[in-house]
Amino acid sequence: MYQHLLGLESPRLGGRSAWRVAEVRLDVGAETIEVVAEHPEGTPAAAGCPECGLSLACYDHAPPRKWRHLDSCQFKTYLIASIPRVQCPEHGVRQVGVPWAEGSSRFTLLFERLAIDVLLATQTVKGAMGLLRTNWDQTWNIVQRAVARGKSRKVDGPLPRIGIDEKAFSKGQRYLTLLYDLDHSTVEAISDSNDTEAGIDCFSQLSEGQIASVEAVAMDMSAAYVKAAKAVIPLADQKIVHDRFHVMQLATTAVDQVRRGEHRLLGRGETSPLTKTRYLWLTSLENLNEKQRGLLDEVCEQNLQTGKAWAYKEMLRDLWHHADAASATDYFKDWYKRVIHTKLAPIKKVARTIKQRLANVMSYCTHGITNAVAEGVNSKIMAIKRRVGGYRNKQHFKTAIFFYCGGLNLYP
Ligand SMILES: [Zn+2]
Fold first, then answer.
1. Are residues 125 and 180 in the same domain?
2. In this predicted model, what pLDDT tens digit does every residue of 307-352 receive, in sequence order?
3. Per the database record, which ranges form the Transposase IS204/IS1001/IS1096/IS1165 helix-turn-helix domain (predicted)?
4. 375 and 315 housed in the same domain
5. Which residue from 9, 27, 162, 260 has the least number of CB within 10 angstroms?
6. Does 226 reside within a domain?
7. Distance CA 178, CA 172 (A)
8. How far apart are CA 364 and CA 361, in angstroms?
9. Ligand 1 centroid to 73 CA: how many Å?
10. Domain finish residue from 151, 177, 197
11. Cα(91) to centroid of ligand 1, in Å?
12. Ligand 1 centroid vs 17 CA: distance in angstroms?
């Protein structure tokens, strides 16, 4: 039975496999089953020399090894075998490959496939550990091997529309830079930190052909990524798009600065009309419920600076509702003129920043991209991070991002 279950006689191997099950050991107390597979001396080693494929007879056997296989009912099942070695005239004494596992893995192919499915379904290493009855190191090893496998198979296809963004990976100011394929919602490259060097490093992880294929890059308005794009991507100036998400994020932060300043001024440390209103100003109007809108109307009637700043922020949102760059530019100029004559310093600063980078904000009309896709991937990454309570190990966090968001073919 186990000879069939382990696939040792499967048609895939042409039924020629010299492996056979020699013994099955059942341990009822430990709820384990050990299946001992045997490859008799002298029989030809099916796979031959692992280097050159030369068909050779078995020379000797390596010490026994153990692989975890799919459970037999509720019993943990292990496969035990001594791998035959061949003596190749060119490559010396080598272990042959076995049909049930990859080179150094401690799991059979079928178990590893199941583990990957479970990891993808549970979205957490800990959750998968519970179902698979594996420990953290074993489970993490499967993740790492799957990512390495997926990356080595990955074909460097064209990347016409990409996005670059920073991502905090733990509390404090520790960041990674992520490069996204906006068409496939995948993470293509990751590098440490969020400065110009990090941006250059990320872009440089793409192949030459991929860099040449880039038509548009979505990013925030910080100088770091602009410089990085210009250093790596030809004609970057025409391809950079400061997308709506980042521009509005900047405006929202400015409203909050106005609110904090005004709250300090009005409340002198005590309560003010602005007490507990922070979320009203930070959420977009369309996302507020009726009660919240009522509250917002009330605060706005008090003719506060924060209310004005908020109104300008909401006006700016309409910038992305124009059919072409010319009418959007007119709209912005009008908005700018209104804003620049106010006393709202943080909003004025945003207006100046946008004006400076206007061509690359308007380029959304040509390229039609936003980092909205990246935001989708981002929330997925946030969820992964939340479930493990933050990755203290940066390398592990990167591996998890590639496992869940890399669009890789992970299976053995
Ligand atoms: Zn050889």
1. no
2. 899 999 999 999 988 888 899 999 999 999 999 999 999 999 999 9
3. 98-147
4. no
5. 27
6. yes
7. 18
8. 6
9. 41
10. 151
11. 5
12. 20
Q: How open is the CA angle 24-27-33, to the nearest 5 degrees? A: 45
Query: What is the domain range of residue 86?
Result: 2-151
Please state, in angstroms and as integers, the Cα–Cα distance from residue 221 to each residue in 203, 249, 390, following that order.
Answer: 17, 10, 27
| 3-state secondary structure (DSSP) of residue 42 | coil
**Residue 156 belongs to some domain of the structure:** no
Residue type, 247: V
- Specify if 410 maps to a domain: no
What is the average pLDDT across 261-278?
77
Residues forming a β-bridge with 162: 181, 217
Which residue did the predictor score with more confidence, 262 or 232? 232
240's tokens: 């950079």
How much is the pLDDT for 270? 66
CA distance 368 to 44: 61
- Give the amino acid at 77: T
What is the domain-level CATH number for residue 202?
3.30.420.10
Q: How far is the CA of 58 from the centre of ligand 1 (A)?
A: 13
Place of tokens 């895939």: 12
Task: Kindly report the number of other CB atoms within 10 A of residue 375's CB atom.
Answer: 16
- Ligand 1 center from residue 53 Cα (angstroms): 6
Contact 165, 371 (CB under 8 A): yes
What phi and psi values does residue 61 have, to the nearest 5 degrees? -120, 140
Ligand 1 centre to CA of 47 (Å) is 11
Contact 295, 311 (CB under 8 A): no
For residue 402, report the distance from its CA to the centre of ligand 1, in Å.
35
What is the distance in A from the centroid of ligand 1 to the CA of 383?
A: 48
Query: How far apart are the CA of 84 and the centre of ligand 1, in A?
Result: 14
How far does residue 274's CA lie from ligand 1's centre (Å)? 77
CA 206 to chain CA centroid, Å, is 16
Q: Are 309 and 255 in contact (CB under 8 A)?
A: yes
User: What DSSP letter does each residue of 182-225 carry, written as one string?
Assistant: TTTTEEEEEEESSSHHHHHHHHHTS-HHHHHH--EEEE-S-HHH
Mean pLDDT of 176-190: 93
